[in-house]
UniProtKB/TrEMBL annotation:
MF annotations from Gene Ontology: oxidoreductase activity, acting on the CH-OH group of donors, NAD or NADP as acceptor
Organism placement in taxonomy: Bacteria, Bacillati, Bacillota, Bacilli, Bacillales
Protein name per the record: SDR family NAD(P)-dependent oxidoreductase
Signal peptide bounds: none
The keyword Transmembrane helix belongs to this UniProt entry's keyword annotation: no
Amino acid sequence: MGVLEGRIAMISGAGSGLGRAAAIAFADAGANVVLLGRRIDKLEETAALLAQRTGRPALVLSSDVTDEQQVSDSVEAVLQHWGRIDVLLNNAAVLEQGSVLELTSEEWQNQIATNLTGPFLLTKAVLPAMRKQRYGRIINITSSLSRNGAGGFVAYSAAKAGLESLTRTVADEEHEHGILVNLYNPGTLRTEMHATGKDPSIVTPDIVRLASLSFGGPTGTIHSYG
């Protein structure tokens, strides 16, 4: 039996890159996987890969993480289908260049909405179910830009800094309910957002480990590849 046998794991941005790699790793570890994203064709490609490897169907849900109603509907669909949610991986992200002087207000809001508000909305939506079952593991994908910043990436850097503070706050609020909330910095990955870097599958063992932590494990902490 895998370390996530029988668990229900939701992944945002599951159509490609790290989201797809994590979905495969979770399924290989025994989890039933929920694939969230805006591009249904990419989600179905991920689902087909999971079915090939495990013989188990994934639940595919087209959802924009910046839309509170869509997020709420997606969580309700999972609860109707499986009755519980054990793991949430907040992976969906957008990365667009722009300095403070260059970035428009709309471009700023778009990156904050996906990279910070999206994880907030998904976390808020799953917490009642996790509290009820007194079990939950939430993993938020962060970046070294959260602490170091980087010229030309003001919105992404600010959003990830906010995500780290959100993570520590939720970890403090939810620990008594059996819910562990952690950050993971995978470093530079080769994805649609970045042309060079590690293959995403290299870091997925770390993410599986965070998803399968026993109660009393770390919470509100940052974990990094290597």
